[in-house]
Amino acid sequence: MSVARVTEITATSKKGFQEAVEKGIDRASKTLKNITGAWVEDHKVICEDGKISKYMVRMKVTFILNDK
Q: What is the rounded distance in angstroms from the CA atom of residue 27 to the CA atom of residue 5?
């Protein structure tokens, strides 16, 4: 039987939401092993001088715990 855990992360990108998600998963996978999925819980943009400067996503990442 497997046991999963969910952790919340926030990631940003200057290009778009998809890149923010990809950067978040890439970074999470350096610390968390056995990532099985994620869902975007929230997304927003940061504006400076009336223009979008960053895209931000808050997501929950699911990973399977090792049996060791």
A: 17
